[in-house]
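Appendix B, record 7
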Amino acid sequence: MDEARGIDLHLHSSASDGRLTPTELVDLCHAKGLSHIALTDHDTLAGVAEARQRCAHHGMRLLCASELSCQWRGMTIHIVALLPQGPNAAFTASLEGLAEARVKRAEEIARRLEKLGLDDALARARAIAGSERPLGRPDFAQALVDAGLAADRQAAFKRYLGAGKRGDVKTHWPALETVVGWIVDAGGVAVVAHPLRYGMTRRKRDLLFEAFIGAGGQAAELVSGYQNRDTTFDLARQLAHHELYGSLGSDFHFPGGALAPGTLSPAPRSHVRPVWAHPALADFVAPL
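Structure tokens (predicted):
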């Protein structure tokens, strides 16, 4: 994956829980020297058309994509859908179902946070979102900060919204196999997002990859933002063992944080094939 310069395949805009509009995000990516990107907003493709238009302006290439939520063994797992052909009708219908699930989840998060002292939690989060898109935990995190209940977004997650906390509402997301099936049926490539962030043992990650591959998945993010060097080398060995393609991305959400588009740990030298070498993505990586 030595040729990774200029590529970021995990980015968020205001179409989901990012701060920048798709146009602003693409402008920032261009300023950072990126040439090939994927907009991976949560459970939506709403920002793709705008981002593609702006990429054309800059002479950049955009891959239609989304980060989908699913369940595996009681855990919420995120799968990035890389869709070089765009969505089919069934995929679009599936996104509508996920959006409805996010609305119900936001309502439940708001009810719980109101009991913990955040008055009008849903209205506060909606004001921060600034649109009618489905709300996410980062919106509620900012609401907690603005209300003086948390020092910053990280503290809000640690106390209220992180795994196992009161605001961590377990939505009934579809099964891993179902979500991967949607992506494969649309001619896309399914990618396990940030596999090191789920708090799994190495053995459990093996089991996740086995279930993912059995459903038709073919890739996982080898690098997501900044990672420990030794852990990344070990993950590379794991992906190579399972013959998974490797992807990478910053998981950028907002300016001013530790991450910016294209800022991520270097991919180690390994036998892992880059996901952009997948035959389905040949047009994406063709010379500009």
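Remarks on this record: The mean pLDDT is 94. Residues 7-88+174-285 form a domain with the TIM Barrel fold (CATH 3.20.20.140).
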